[in-house]
């Protein structure tokens, strides 16, 4: 078993648990639709996070050719995956929720969710830097940092319009990256 395969098992479990938690939450939302008030921001973040998790799981596979594994690199990879899982748990708390309004759930957990969103982007930067590819391609760093800035703005505002925009934007950018930009870049 290669070092990548060893790490990939753990990362796959963590990201897979995040995907499973989102799907379970969406299933609960559908099954209990008469009991819970739906919320556009929450739904958009659910879609965005699902796509981001699947996309990052796919992109993680690019590390299969990486040969300079160290404990520090392993740790950053694991932390990176954990941030995504925790985002899914903050979006869809695992315990039985007495709150029956997804808008209230999101607002209550918004600082944690956006803090984890920012942390996931910063850990992606750390992961890329440890691979020695921080400026390859040259637009990578500004691209990821703009998500950090948008997340910080989200922490500072209660505007439902902004949060709908942010979730929709992350969803749209993720789909664009998954289906168009990757093809243009040749991977």
From TrEMBL:
Protein keywords: Membrane, Transmembrane, Transmembrane helix
TM stretches of this protein: 6-26, 38-61, 73-92, 112-133, 139-157, 164-185
Domain of life: Bacteria
Protein name, per record: Uncharacterized protein
